[in-house]
Amino acid sequence: MWNERESPLRIEKRFEFNEYSKISKFIEKIEKLCKEKDIYPNISFGKNFVSLSIFFDKKEISDKEKDFSKEIDNFYLQD
What we know:
The protein is α+β, with helices and mostly antiparallel strands. The protein is 43% helix and 27% strand.
């Protein structure tokens, strides 16, 4: 589940991995999706995690951004 935060409005999620090699594959999938959807989250990662934050200009999360976050969840579940 993505966590909604305020000030500034954003959603965040941390994805855990047991192998570093899976992190690079996950980030590559996100990169392609970003270009396709024109949404560019803040990404940070470490030895066993990837954290994403998607910031919003509007006061609510659009369907485009909801779909984007669901697709990222699907990438994670496939690995």
